[in-house]
Design goal:
By secondary structure, the protein is mainly alpha-helical. The protein has helices at residues 18-27, 31-35, 39-60, 62-65, 68-71, 73-78, 83-98, 109-142. The protein has one domain (18-141). It is built from eight helices and no strands. The chain starts with 17 loop residues before the first helix and ends in a 12-residue tail after the last helix.
Length: 154
C-alpha cells in the first residue's frame, strides 16, 4: 500500500469512510481527523475540547454539571462529547446514590460548569461535521474523472 503525504492511513485509490470518521470523532474529539491523516488538527481538537469539557466538570463538580433532570437541553449538548460524557453521567449517578447529602455547586459556578460542558459537546458536534466534510472532499478528489468529450474545436 502506497502512503500519501496527505494521509498516513489510506492509499491513493481509497478514501476513508465517512461513518467511521464520524464515529471516531464522536468517541474522542479529533480522533476522526487523526484517522484521515490530519494529526495537528486532531491534537488541537482533542486538547481544546476535552479540556473545556473536563474544566466544566471540575468547576461545578460532576453532580452539578452532568445532571439530566436539572440541566434539560444542556445534557443533550454534553452527550455530543461521546463516551466521556457517558462516563461523567455514570459518575454523577454513582455519586448521587452513594453521597445523597453531598453539597452541589452554588451559583454562578454551577451555571458556568454546565455551559462549559455543553459548549464542549457542541464544539465536538462541529468537529464531527468538519471531519464528514473533509472525508467527502477527499472522496470527490479520489474519484476518477471521465475523459473530456471530443467535438467542437480542434
Amino acid at each position: 500500500m502506497v502512503k500519501t503525504a496527505k494521509s498516513d492511513s489510506h492509499s491513493d485509490t481509497t478514501a476513508p469512510s465517512a461513518p467511521v470518521a464520524a464515529l471516531l470523532a464522536w468517541m474522542l474529539p479529533g480522533l476522526g481527523h487523526w484517522w484521515i491523516g490530519q494529526r495537528a488538527r486532531a491534537f488541537i481538537f482533542l486538547a481544546v475540547i476535552t479540556g473545556t469539557f473536563w474544566t466544566g466538570v471540575a468547576v461545578g463538580g460532576v453532580r452539578t454539571t452532568v445532571t439530566p433532570r436539572e440541566n434539560g437541553a444542556w445534557i443533550a449538548a454534553q452527550l455530543c462529547m461521546g463516551p466521556q460524557a457517558l462516563a461523567a453521567l455514570y459518575w454523577s449517578n454513582q455519586r448521587l446514590s452513594q453521597h445523597k447529602d453531598e453539597i452541589k455547586a452554588s451559583w454562578p459556578a454551577s451555571n458556568i460548569a454546565v455551559v462549559y460542558a455543553g459548549v464542549a459537546g457542541l464544539l465536538n458536534l462541529l468537529v464531527i461535521i468538519d471531519v464528514l466534510a473533509r472525508v467527502e472532499s477527499m472522496t470527490a478528489v479520489a474519484q476518477p474523472r471521465p475523459p473530456p468529450k471530443s467535438g467542437g474545436r480542434a
